[in-house]
Amino acid sequence: MNALLRLVGWVLALALVALPVVAVLNGWIGANQWPLKRLRVTGEFERVDAAALRKTLLPYAQRGFFAVDLPKAQDAVSKLPWVERAEVRKRWPDVLEVTVIEHKPFARWGQDRLLSEQGRLFPVGKDLQVPDKLPQFGGPDGRVADVVALYNESRELFAPVGLEVRDLEVDQRGSWTMGLSNGARIVIGRTEQRSRLSRFVHMLPQLTAQKAQVLERADLRYTNGFSLTWAPAQQAPAAAPKQQGQS
After folding, report:
1. What is the pLDDT of residues 168-178, one digit of tens each?
2. pLDDT, tens digit, for every residue of 176-224?
3. Across the strands, what pairs with 116?
4. Which of 26, 121, 168, 209 has its CA 20 to 30 A from that of 239?
5. How far, in Å, CA of 107 to CA of 167, rounded?
């Protein structure tokens, strides 16, 4: 008799432990008893669509406090345009909380992607408003860090001569090309990129001072010099003839 009572007690104890687990898995204690009523969003962002964020989270919030699938909700938010990172949590008794970290664009990459300040590539998308005057980068995805490093160094080199680096690209063979704010194309080559650029910038004021033309292209792939291509400078419009009686 005592053995039977002990057995019944163990069965009841296991049932009391197992039933809530089964209930959660099946959504029994879900939206009806413990609904999620509020969405709290934190994070500084400008381009993430608030309506799209709410629409993405709504199916997960409808499952209720205990049944909401936080990992899947977080993954869904992370796939929204401009979202670099997201974290979804629940706060008792009825709050679904999401923290959004937005991509901060640093440059364009290729034809259809942007590079964030954190060094991550993400798609532009047809509906994204891309900031103006971003530099244009290009190259194999594995060369992102190399492109950013040479861009930063080149920007410092050209700043004293009043020029900006507008685009920078490395091809599959490892050959570099650059575009400047004055329209000049710079062919750097596969080796000694920094020393070649430094030598070129050092000579640039003298080269441009001696020419009444505009530098169109510079090929730096020479041991002791450069190959330069010049374009005719645009002449300023002639002043209107002064008429009689004007002062």
Report:
1. 999 999 999 99
2. 999 999 999 999 999 999 999 999 999 998 888 876 778 999 999 998 8
3. 105
4. 209
5. 9
